[in-house]
Design brief:
The protein is an all-alpha fold. The chain contains 4 helices and no strands. GO terms for molecular function: DNA binding.
Length: 48
């Protein structure tokens, strides 16, 4: 999944996701939970 697809899936803009993927700002916990749901992986895989 590319950044544009991820952004659409979690209801954020592509620039929002891109900024966080570059490590300039952190994702908030709601975003992390939504990303886990979209990717069908346990939440703990993203924060552990």
């Amino acid at each position: 999944m590319d950044q544009q697809g991820l952004a659409a899936a979690i209801g954020r803009s592509t620039s929002y996701v891109s900024t966080r993927m570059r490590g300039e700002l952190p994702f908030d916990l709601n975003d992390v939970e939504n990303i886990a749901i979209v990717l069908e992986i346990p939440y703990s895989q993203l924060i552990g």
